[in-house]
Amino acid sequence: MTYQQIEQVAKNKLSEKRFYHSQCVAEQCEVLAKIYNVPIEKAKLVGIAHDIAKEMEKEEMKQYAKENAIEIDEIEKHHIKLLHAKIGADICKKQFLFDEQMVRAIEAHTTGKKEMDILAKILFVADAIGDDRNWEDLEEIRSIAKKDINSAVLYILDLNIKERIEKKKLIHIDSIDCRNELLM
Ligand SMILES: [Fe+2]
Ligand SMILES: [Fe+2]
User: CB 3.0-4.6 Å disulfide test: which of 48, 75, 172, 174 passes with 26?
Assistant: First the structure.
């Protein structure tokens, strides 16, 4: 499917706020793709599509996972919304016909993962630095992202993990694995 078609699907499926977020992420994906020599079209596509499953109801997510043989891990069981990454990736593969690399990027976009390639890292970072975000570190992370994508991934992981610790929330093992890999 073309970018315009997928953008239209996203517009129909998502709230105005989430659709705007997706557009902002696609925009940041484009900026980073140019810097890191990644095909711009691919980067924009994963950006606009990455949260396509984010607003599914919890029951709908469980149902989708069951029907499409998506494994739900221990952490996801307690935090069903995390599944939007795996389900979104599945939708992108089956309905939008994304290639393997793009599917893997979408799978990794929420927690981070070991062995993320450059496209996955770009999406992970772009998700955090769109115009819709308004944290105080925004400009700082944007400038890191343009110079060193690994440092930007680490920075964002650390922010997320710190926040989850403060709020006494579960931390997905994939985030820890991703972080350790970047530090090793
Ligand atoms: Fe997401
Ligand atoms: Fe997102």
Answer: 48
